[in-house]
């Protein structure tokens, strides 16, 4: 099988060795002669997986002891509602930074529970930048941010300075770079962008911040319930948690978040450099807001579309079609994507330019 350069925006590329180990566990897990898919989540073997996964999160992100790590279900999309339920007081309000589709969806869910103030929005330019110089209300219960905007290819370079707690949807850049967990009261992320397969959602929450809303919270949305049951209030998604554990182990074995941050920077530099220097392409996001995870770009001459598309397909490149809200192309460069895949894409872009120079 020839190698495919997989730039999928999500679910995304996973390390080959992880896929191999994961497939073996489907047949015979831990030499039990049983599949991971057919054993109890309360078995010693699975509890070890859960504990390992949690500990890897703690280690890789330096999670302080007063934070809890949970692996739940419902995707980041349920995280939008979960965040509001657990942090917005009964007569409270929340502040949202509107940086794109996902930020909007988060804001919409919070509106079901109370007052929501949009502190800033980049909608005026189809979300191609991260707003600056906005006021954060001191009386809101929290500020919600989306650290990486998967669809529009923008990323927050700094955590906002805020007197109120910050909640972050980090679905598409968690584990891609160092973060300071204590800047946030809650971090949540769907696994399928940078941590594992679809089906589990990571929550990292400051325990002392919970239980203060005065609300009755449905059990499945109540982070305190999940904490009290060690992420096993109901049957956890055993396989996505297992594969996430393997992926985090892969990250740790290779040098952890610091190591991958350097590689991710190299990949982004390589591609953006080509986008900026190749007359046939231009980036869609403002330079200082560009994402190291998802690079969005368009052809300067639409007539070359069919030619470019057949060239990258012939080079075994997959998954770079842009999202319908932006058009053009989007190259997602998540952790498991090797530098050589970015080089393969850059080579095709150079070849196109050479043909038309
Ligand atoms: C993909 C994505 C989501 C939605 O995640 P689901 O797990 O599909 O619910 C939310 N936020 C961001 C930033 C995303 O990239």
TrEMBL record:
It is found in: Cytoplasm. Binds 1 pyridoxal phosphate per subunit. It is an enzyme of class 2 (transferase). GO terms for cellular component: cytoplasm. Residues 5-345 form the Aminotransferase class V domain. Its cofactor is pyridoxal 5'-phosphate. GO terms for biological process: L-serine biosynthetic process; pyridoxine biosynthetic process. The keyword Mitochondrion does not apply. InterPro entries: Aminotrans_V_dom (IPR000192), Aminotrans_V_PyrdxlP_BS (IPR020578), Pser_aminoTfrase (IPR022278), PyrdxlP-dep_Trfase (IPR015424), PyrdxlP-dep_Trfase_major (IPR015421), PyrdxlP-dep_Trfase_small (IPR015422). It comes from the Bacteria. The modification N6-(pyridoxal phosphate)lysine is found at residue 193. Its EC number is 2.6.1.52. Belongs to the class-V pyridoxal-phosphate-dependent aminotransferase family. SerC subfamily. HAMAP family: SerC_aminotrans_5. Homodimer. PANTHER family: PHOSPHOSERINE AMINOTRANSFERASE (PTHR43247:SF1). Catalyzes the reversible conversion of 3-phosphohydroxypyruvate to phosphoserine and of 3-hydroxy-2-oxo-4-phosphonooxybutanoate to phosphohydroxythreonine. This is Phosphoserine aminotransferase. It comes from Vicingus serpentipes.
